[in-house]
Amino acid sequence: MEALGGTVYRSPLQDVEDEQDEREVAARKAEIAQLKAEKTRARKEQKARLQAKIDNLQEKLHAKLEKVKMRSKQREKEAEAEVQAPEKKAAKAKGKAKAVLKARVANIRKGSRKSTTNFQRLRKN
Length: 125
Description:
The protein is an all-alpha fold. It has helices at residues 13-41, 44-92, 95-124. It has 3 helices and no strands.
């Protein structure tokens, strides 16, 4: 890509997935809000059709939030497994090596908390 004069942007997969989840959840919520507003102005025979669409979108939203929740829990498990080895090494290490290992553990845990925070934010909005 660079050879053709393009620019390459690299982002961690987790960040890309989180951004995509945010967009999808926001779009579903906006669509639900729009249909609810439309339902208040609709005639009686249209209300049932609009309510069916709203129910369908709410099911999809719930499914998406469950998927995000499961991914968040999986990331937490992976982070905890990834932390175990450096923690054991840090317990035996001394000086600068110990500080480096502790920084690595803190960085891994920070990424795990970020995923959990993202999920909680999506549920609230």
